[in-house]
Amino acid sequence: MDVKLYFYLKKLRLKFNRHTFPFLGVALFAALLFLFRLPVSKLLDAIIVRPLFISFERGIWADIILLLLLLISVIWIAKEQQRKLLFRLTLFGLVFYGFQRTNNYWSFIFMTLFPRFAYWDLVALVMTLALPLNFLLRRKAADNEVIIDNQGFIEDNAVTQLEDDHFNRKTAAAEIARIIQLTKNRKSFAIGILGEYGSGKTSFLNLINLELSSEEVLKIAFNPWTTGKPETIRREFFDLLAREVAEFDLTISSLVYSYGRKLASFDARSLNWMNWLAFFRNRGSVQSSGEHEQINKMLHGLHRKIVITIDDLDRLYPSEVMEVLKLIRNTADFSNVFYLVAYDKAYIHEALKTISELGGQNYLDKIFQLEIPLPKREADDLLTILQDRIKEMVSPEHYSAFENIMIQNDFRRSYEKAYNSILRQGRDVVRFLNSFRIVYRLIGEEVDFECLVILELIKFRFPSIYELIYTQRDLFLSENPVRSTHEQYLSPRMIKNEDADKRLNETSFFKKHIEQFKWLTVEDTSVLDGLFMSLFKVSTHSKTKKINLISYPLYFEIYFRYRLSKKDISDKEFKAAMEAGQMAEYMAYCANHGLHKELMVRLMQENISENRHHFEQVISWIFSFGRTFVEKEGKFRFDYGALVDKIYNYHNHITDKVYKKDISTYKDFITNLLSMAMPPFLFENELIYHLKKKGDNFVIPTSELTTNQLSYFTKMADSGHGLSEETLWLFWGAREYYRIPANEPGTYYEKWRFEPSLVDKMKIYLINKDPKEFLKASIQHEMRDHSLVFITREIIEIFDDPSEYRTLVAQNPLLDDAIRQEYLQLFDKLAEKDFMEYVVVELKTELLKRGLG
């Protein structure tokens, strides 16, 4: 087909579709119906009405069924069809309905439910609902899409509407567009938009195009990076230009098409050196022809400017870059044409240098009459985008922390923790948030939000440093205990340095280590050190109230593995159980799943200094679960010192703050907890031992604490346990310490003895209960030679005369004879040594097995 004919037909079709249809079509349709209304009616009567409706019987059910069918049909049509088609169908349908309804040829059947309406009226009425229903359904679908988008990844889309201009660049874009429209250029005018990767060049090009008048400007977007290879760029460009110009002038379009095809037919390899030479000598291309001049003249007389946008020039290979620049400077250097080209200038320089040493700044200046660096964003622009986006993906509580704490204290600083320097471009914000979304959905409710944001910022900008923090944590961090809160936290290892003024300061091991990396700038190192120190900021003197920080070993791994292991306590589930009053069930779950140690740590870490209710809740849980812990781990594995520190009321800090100076109420609370102890009483008995060791400054006097120990001991001994090993632990645990002066003035020896009130009871039990376990517990073996045996001195001291003890053993009717004889033999040998030395005794009975093991 002839080129001119092709574009002429295309132009006619486009103009007909755009300007005359459907209104001209409706007018023609109406004229035909009016002129041929009788033949049309007879035709419809013959092929549709009589075959289908000759025996139609109206009634209520017919009305209902027809109404339902019509509603289903119109909903399907509104949902599935395009709005433009629905508009045309509605327009044509109403015209057709009007002519047929007023045609005297027809006799209409009226509805039973609504006698004033014919069935034909019902069909027309329902079908007119298709268009408004389409608007409603599409709007609802759009709302749903927004909701789905908010739950998925964020697309890195360029700005396509003025209201989406977060960086306020539309003012500059509008001015560029205004001057373009005022410029009378005889040759093409090329404007370079300069910016780094991801800085928003595409969005700025779109803003300029939005400000250009569609009535005065033909806007064309050419994407050379979609062509695949350099030799096709030229052909694709002129084909695109010809198609777009065809909208307004078929003659120019035909010439452009022909001109482009001729240029594409040249052997690029044979002409490459000539084109390059002509390009850099600023002369006409060897491909120039009379057609170029003709096109140039015709475009000059065109009443529209042509603005050609070329984005991502810095995506191309050097040879492709050169081909595009030749188009701009030589082969497509047409009058009334503007080129808006976006690129990273440093990349284009390097690309030109790979082709020729001549391809430097001077030659690039000959191509672009104007280069405009992308307008700089305001300091908080990226932060505003981050803030708006992150609000959609985090909980209200976390967003409040981000808005009121992190933004104010961290993102707006110009030193140390300069978080905003991590995110340099708008694209960085999108990429960071897409990565953060994944991690937040997995562990956002299990870990500290601020720590998670900081760590993810490091991972986003410096992934290798992120890995280093994980793999080299022992190099950069040390573990420090805070016993009162049962916290084992990680803190940065520091090095003391002396500066030029001989002042001492501290630098982290982490900073010293990363300073060796040549690929990190001084600024990068400073930012990373600030972020690192922020992550591990807990210290002995300044403890935070949060317990799921990355600085706690209990949580460190979770931040990197993005999930809970079988040995991790869920902070979310813990808080849920606490708030729902289901802590008893949660403690049982942890005990049954081997999480008792982790839960006890979590309970110990809970902040209990805010109010009395929470204080008593947590302490009660610790007492209750302490029994389970001791049962599973043994009586010495529990950190009694940490619990003592929590309840000891140092300097009245508990009673002053939590109990409003009501000491008696606090005493009643602790007394009640101790009285609620359950067999075998090992946890409470050992706790009292540690409380008594601290001195007599506890809220409950030592005498009352001892009364509790006596109660535990007697309850166990008088029950079926007798003098079992567990009962004996209660007896041993009630011991008290005392001091005796040493030889040197001011020094002393610390010794211990059994609690006298429990001793009196024990003497009775040694008479009427089997003392086997007591005898086993009294025997000590020399550490190196187990054949050397001794009876614990403190047991002998229970009695005023050791013979009293011998008599009790000798006369106890419940003791096995072999054990009795063996123990008395040992006793007699030690008596000869005044119980001051080990003796050799070969034990053969159960006494050989050590007691209280």
TrEMBL record:
The chain crosses the membrane at residues 21-40, 60-78, 85-102, 117-137. InterPro entries: KAP_P-loop, NTPase_KAP_P-loop, P-loop_NTPase. The keyword Transmembrane helix applies. It comes from the Bacteria. Pfam families: KAP_NTPase (PF07693). Keywords: Membrane, Transmembrane, Transmembrane helix. Residues 170-442 form the KAP NTPase domain. PANTHER family: NTPASE KAP FAMILY P-LOOP DOMAIN-CONTAINING PROTEIN 1, NTPASE, KAP FAMILY P-LOOP DOMAIN-CONTAINING 1. This is KAP NTPase domain-containing protein.
